[in-house]
Amino acid sequence: MESVFHIQIILMYWMLGLLHAGTPAVQQLNYEILKNGKPVGKLVSTQTVGDGTKEFITESDVSIEILFKIQVYTRVRSLFNNGLLFDGNFLRKVNGREKANAHIYWANDKYYIKGLNETEIFKSKIYYTTACLMHVEPEGLGRIFSENFRRFIPIKPVGPHKYVLQLPDGNENYYTYSNGKCIEAEIETSFATVDIHLKN
Hints:
By secondary structure, this protein is mainly beta. It is 9% helix and 60% strand. It contains 1 helix and 14 strands. The chain has one helix spanning 2-19, and strands at 25-35, 38-49, 53-65, 69-81, 84-94, 97-107, 110-114, 119-122, 143-146, 151-159, 162-166, 172-178, 181-188, 193-198. A 14-stranded antiparallel beta sheet has the order 8-7-6-5-4-3-2-1-14-13-12-11-10-9, with helices on one face. Strand 12 (172-178) and strand 13 form a beta hairpin. The longest helix is centred in the first third of the chain and has 18 residues, at 2-19. It is globular.
């Protein structure tokens, strides 16, 4: 039942968007991903601002050889309506195989999070997610919502315009900002640590 309701809401917002003459403003940030100073992939983050809505989409593609080649594709999307997360997705593929696929949406005063094998309910309102990290400095925030881990995780400043995101798996990611945009990040994963640098 909630799926039908969710589709109706999405269609309603889409139709309302068609009624507005204004063209959404789109900003794209392009990053290079490095391991030990060598390029291993790219990351593209897009922010689209409409009438009362903001959508953030971040896609990364990384290929690393350790004992064998590991290719990881990740896509994170969050759609906000009047500041509140309304709809989002998280997808991760490793060597072409789907390892994570989650859909979160707001309905009936709560969030439904549908994963590969289960549906969870999350009642706290969400105003900032990991999809926002490249475009919006998390100034003044103590925690943000992770589409990957499906929970709030702590973030704290460690220097001027620099923050550490403390992940539930024990890894720490560092983000550095200039003029509100992320210009570089250090990302820890289970198989490698990579650096992300803004190209333009």
